[in-house]
Amino acid sequence: MLFEKYKIKQFIVKNRIVMAPMCMYQSDNCGFVKEFHKAHYYSRSLGGIGIVIVEATSVSENGRISDRDLGIWREEHVHGLSQLASNIKEAGAIPFIQLNHAGRKSFSKKVIAPSSISNYRDDKVLEKMTTKIIDEVIDDFVKAAIRADKAGFDGIEIHAAHGYLISQFMSPISNKRKDEYSNKHLFLKRIVESIQRVWPKKKLMSIRVSATEYHPDGFTIKDVIDILNKIDLKNVDYINVSSGGNIPPKKIKLKTGYQLEFSKKIKSALNVHVIGGGLISNYNSANRALKRNKCDSIFFGRLLLRDPMYFLRIKKGLDWPQAYKRGK
Ligand SMILES: Cc1cc2nc3c(=O)[nH]c(=O)nc-3n(C[C@H](O)[C@H](O)[C@H](O)COP(=O)(O)O)c2cc1C
Prior knowledge:
Blueprint: E1 6-8, E2 11-13, E3 17-19, H1 35-45, E4 51-58, E5 70-71, H2 77-90, E6 94-100, E7 111-113, E8 126-128, H3 131-150, E9 155-160, H4 165-170, H5 186-198, E10 204-210, H6 221-229, E11 238-242, H7 260-269, E12 273-277, H8 283-291, E13 297-300, H9 302-306, H10 310-314
Parallel strand pairs: 3-4, 3-13, 4-5, 4-6, 6-9, 7-8, 9-10, 10-11, 11-12, 12-13
Antiparallel strand pairs: 1-2
Helix pairs in contact: 1-2, 3-5
Bound molecules: flavin mononucleotide.
């Protein structure tokens, strides 16, 4: 199952293995791609991965999590990013890039958020977003999507998870607005629908969500499904299911595949390819999840940090890169 290929739009994806987006914090303070990123993504793509999602990349200068995030808020970023996209393709994987704005979780001095409620990690002064600023950020996402296309990415992933700006709007904990954006789905809806106008229809689109906040005051899986149901998902090909991040969890049991119950619910509620995962660190657990219909593909994060060649090692029949064949 894990090594089974499938067709989606014009793409044949060679298996159901997805490299999860993981911030590496190895850029400079202007968001440019470095040699590290080229080597990091190239070597992981050589390891037999179907889809490689480049880490959360900031659509606005003040949307960075840290001053070492990758950026896509300037035309000048396109060149370096295009090297990542072409390296990933050359190594046989499909390149995605995750588009993010950190909102109240940004390190920057001028922090914006849906409401003036600080991130739990600090008590920075926040600027509550006016509708003008909201429109500007939506426009930043749109411009970032255009740049991702120019850079040669086949897919974009909108980061609506982990307590960053979009999920701050989705959460009753961080969104106490009284205007139309009190509708928890609206910011995400406008971003998705605006991006759909510029992102080529033949290319792929994903949304990453946190399925729950693990907190009695936060959103639940049911709320997330309601939010997704209010959005026109016709050109959205994937929902990538994670959890948490906006507030310290009240109760969470970390164990292999602990998020799969959520991906399963989203899969049965929506007609879309669902990527699930979290603490899945071997082939058997991943395959079991697919067989039990918990999701359609599996993301792997930390496993690929420690062992980029894991999948080649466990399945010697895989199409090994020519240069490595003698290592089989
Ligand atoms: C170093 C590191 C950086 C991460 N950065 C991101 C990120 O940029 N975007 C995101 O959606 N998730 C991020 N995550 C979460 C991973 O995508 C993934 O959901 C998480 O690591 C759980 O999967 P795993 O158990 O296979 O590692 C990060 C995780 C790690 C370990």
